Amino acid sequence: MCGIVGEASLGALNSVEWIKNALNAIKHRGPDNEGIWSSEDKKIIFGHRRLSIIDLSNDGNQPMLSECQNYVITFNGEIYNYKEIASKLKKKGIKLKTETDTEVLLNSYKVWDEHFLDQIEGMFAFAIFDKKKKIIFFARDKSGQKPLYIFKNNSSISFCSELKGLLENPSVERKLSEESFIQYLHQGYASDQCCLVKDVIKLKAGQLLKFNLIDGKAEFKKYFNLPKPLKNEVNDSNVLIEKLEILLKNSIKDQTKADVPLGILLSGGIDSSLITSIASNSNKKINTFTFINDLEKQSDFELNNSRIISKFYSTNHHEIYFGDIKKEIIFEISDINDEPIIDSSFIPTYLITKKIKKYCTVALGGDGGDELFGGYNHYPRLLNLIRIKKILPELICNFVSHVSNSYLPIGFKGRNWLNLLSKNFNENYLDFATYFDTHNNFKIISNFYINNFKNLNYLERKDLSNDDYIYKSTSQDFNNFLVDDILSKNDRSSMANSLELRSPFLDSKVINFAFGEVNSNLKVNNNKKKILLKKLCLKLFPKNFEFEKKKGFSVPIANYFKKKDWINMAQNILLDDNSLFNTNYVSSMFKKSIFNHNNAERIYGLIMFELWRKKNKISIG
Q: In what order do the strands lie in the sheet with 287-293?
């Protein structure tokens, strides 16, 4: 796993000093080697930081040039099926000089052009200079596991694995994007191509980009989309279980290939337990790791499940214990959280990846299982809400939603679900978790800054029209929450510790199977989740495994914000005279209410944003 950076221009580049600064800023992504390549005409420069995973020799150093000198690549990621593709290339007469997936990737582009993306399996973000076509070719993997930030103006394009690296480019104005900021307040992250910095975009998951070095035009294209949902079919669950097991076995087999030590993040949930179950068959005494935090009374089922699974499959199990987490972790997280997200599970993910680095360089996790097979609590709740909506007249639904949105304070339990009553479930974006809605946007901004915002009511997201509500909600989560929260959190926290996290559920064959072959009624009903996945687990797991409860790696953030030193820290940041946020509004969030409010996650999100804004000197307006 690595970090990449670069710039390409229609004319000779005046200064490339920022490339060196960017490489230093993302050093944690690749401490093993640094490389820079520039074209003879000084119009293109590529930089690379390497974390050695496959072929630990210097042969894998980048940027890498093709044998014919017509192609140059800087690549972040892993191609799991590179050996199979290498065999195809050799049959076409291509002679490979190294054992690296980078060389395979570069020659695959040379032979098959953009269509090579249909063949490769892995997680990646890369840039290729095509001297013959005079273009820079970019691509990001199908589920968005690896990030790529891009800044383009009339004459050049710049890119980097992390925003902090791209901000070293003096051409990037450090201004807040209003559109992305509203997304952040509303859902906890900037989604799709949006970035919190104005004029910076993220290449979308499953998207490619061609930048023309003659006229400066950029052509974006989606090369991967989720398959269409099944219609009115009854699946044979036994056949599907057998196929799913084979797909996961193949994915895990591919993803356990590495020339460095490997482990598994075992939370005690069914996703990571299933990964452990299958991986342990071919990897004896594999390392497994569970996070334990004593401020919260660790639930017996979670701790027991991880112990049951590790014992049953004879793993080399480690219980990573963190006691009372100090408030300083907030500042540590803000330094590595490249673009802030409202998700306090960043803390345990960061802590456990930091701890396990001494045991392994690659770790597998269960991410993606919830989105693919219906694991979140909001899926059955949605089905129950639909039943209620069918009973109540539309006028009453709209009235209840209006009253909830206008008069119930944020943090009031059930408020988000009451707000959903006014939605058209077939057509609208379904907001299962809303932090600050448009009704509160005008209240939360400081009076000093409020006039800098033009349209705090505008929230742009791409709606998905579908009457299969489980397909709609799972694909919505796959395309948004998974990419811009879960995978972003995983990438930043693991790469900050020079550790590579892999997700076997995000193999494209598993993704296509889950969305294209498994009917929604085998994922979720009114009271059950992950129906098909649990059937496979029943086949593989010991009988004393507890299925129904789920939490994953987390910390009790609400309990921490009850501690005096945490409260003082939060108030010093958010009630500061230079804060973007209205101090009276924020103060009210700190106060204990007679209602069942839970604003700890919101407070965490505001802190993360303010620390990020001030550290990166992001201006408003």
A: 316-322, 287-293, 262-265, 362-364, 500-502
- Using the predicted structure, report yes or no on whether residue 170 has a pLDDT greater than 60: yes
Whether the Cβ atoms of residue 105 and residue 166 lie closer than 8 Å to each other: no
Query: Do residues 268 and 305 touch, judged by C-beta distance below 8 A?
Result: yes
The candidate with the shortest Cα–Cα distance to 320, out of 347, 282, 285, 281, is 347
The pLDDT tens digits for 500-532 are 999 999 999 999 999 999 999 999 998 899 999
The ranges assigned to domains in the chain are 2-222, 237-323+332-375+471-540
CA distance 180 to 194: 6
Closest to 536 (Cα-Cα) out of 302, 101, 241, 115: 241
CB neighbourhood size of 235 (10 A): 14
CB-CB contact of 328 with 347 (8 Å) = no
Entry pTM: 0.94
Tell me the per-residue pLDDT of 449-470, one tens digit each, with 9 for 90 and over: 888 888 877 777 777 788 899 9
The closest of 190, 278, 261, 232 to 507, measured between CA atoms, is: 278
135-140 and 64-65 beta bridge pairing:
unpaired
Q: Is residue 497 classed exposed, middle or buried when 0-12, 13-18 and 19+ CB atoms within 10 A define those classes?
A: middle
pLDDT at 551: 62
Burial (CB < 10 A; 0-12, 13-18, 19+), residue 202, is: buried
User: Is 389 in contact with 403 (CB distance < 8 Å)?
Assistant: no
Query: How far is CA 165 from its chain centroid?
Result: 18
User: What value does the mean pLDDT of the chain take?
Assistant: 90
Q: Which CATH class name applies to 2-222?
A: alpha beta
3-state secondary structure of 399: helix
Say if residue 346 is exposed, middle or buried (CB neighbours under 10 Å; 0-12, 13-18, 19+).
buried
4: Cβ–Cβ under 8 A, 6 or more apart, which residues? 46, 47, 48, 49, 62, 74, 75, 76, 125, 126, 127, 148, 159, 160, 161
| Residues in a beta bridge with 6 | 46, 159
The answer to whether 472 and 228 are in contact (CB under 8 A) is no
CATH H-level superfamily of 237-323+332-375+471-540: HUPs (3.40.50.620)
The DSSP element (H or E) to which 163 belongs, if any, is: helix 163-166
Question: Across 153-195, where does the E strand assignment appear?
Answer: 156-160
